[in-house]
Write a structure and sequence with these properties.
alpha+beta, 9-stranded mixed β-sheet, 5-stranded mixed β-sheet, 24 strands, 18% helix, elongated
Length: 465
Amino acid sequence: AADVFNHGSEIVEDMPIDFLVDGEVVESSTISIAPQQTASARFPYEAIEEGLHEASVKIRGDSLQDDNKAYLPFRVVESIAALGVSEGENQFGFNPTYFTELALNPFREGSENEDAVYKFQNTHISELAGEDLTQYEFICIAGVSAISSVEASILEEYVQAGGGILMFLGKDTDVPTYNQNLYRGGKGLFAWELNVDPINKASDQDSMRMSAFNFSHPLWNGLLDHQNDYLKNVKIYSTFSFKKGSEERAVPLANLISGGEEDTGTDQNDHPIIVDFSFGRGHCVVVCTSSDLSMNDFISHPVFVGFANQAVKYTKSFRDGDNVILSGRNAVRFVSLQSSQANFVCTSPSGESTVIPVDSAELKMELPELREAGFYNLVNQNDSSDSALIGVNVAQREGNVLSLESDAIASLFPDSKLNIIDANADDEAAGGLGGGGAEISSLLLLLVVLCWIGENYLAHRISKR
């Protein structure tokens, strides 16, 4: 999907847009955009070949070429390793992580189906210490009554390094133990403390619902918005909630509201029940109610499928570091322990190569300012199969330059030593090129006079002959 912004003062009719993969045009479309507005174009594409690929979108016929193209690198894989952590089968006879697995792999056999992308390995919480978590793209934890300090430390280390966790609580959650080991006074995975007592509906006639919050959050992208809050269709029978505090590491994504169409949700900020916690490079998304039917009917709604997919895509996106940045910015890529002793060769879109060392202590490499728009290729000097792509795009504020006055341009780039001269500049502004504007004008006038005299003198000599 591509968002195109019209910086001009007139409507753009039927602007052609090309969608390219690995330099080849896959599909083209047209859009119309009102002045100072954004329009979106969507292109369906099914990846076939494994490995790194380059996707780009290009608009045609625009006067400023540098911002006519946007770049997105992506990797095609055969499967994604996932770890499900629980306490075994629940009262309904299935593992609490099963429906998350089913939402990601819509087959009766789940991960066992040959077409399944997400390959789940399930383990009991007591066996977590025996797992090598680095091999998993993300972890789903569901229905675990208590997490020990050792297990919490293992999970912290995983998330600290960029791992992602999607966690559902259960009706037997031991809140004091969770707070002691996962909250740890705000220093653990949870930046907020869980309320000790669950919130239960008053009677069979009453119902509780949840309402989405912070619609600009990546987890809700393409799933929910202010007009379509499908979470309100989910009935909550029982749920825990967090004590809302500082949002430095916490982003509330859904809040508890009472049932009834007339409800205004004025009390919703008091009961966050879906929260995104950042910890180090990674994230842990916590749902305070269950992933089975014991506390709600969440899994019976189609929105659960979208939620599971979006939550997994979001939480597993922080492992490797930047893969899309704006031109002129520094990029950071994180590497595995096996690659920490190697150097990487970084090749720019124009073909210039630079050797980038790895900080073996931080397991990362820092790339200096990447100024060329396009794809930068990173390859391990010791193992060519260990590679990455970084897409560099032009910032929208740079694409806005053509339609701006000089004062507006200067305000957009306050840290740059720009000397801006426009058609209406006065003598003082025009002389900004080292203060020599007037002298250059006089010199040019003198050259014109000399040329005129020379031409007339030559004409006179020729006529005498």
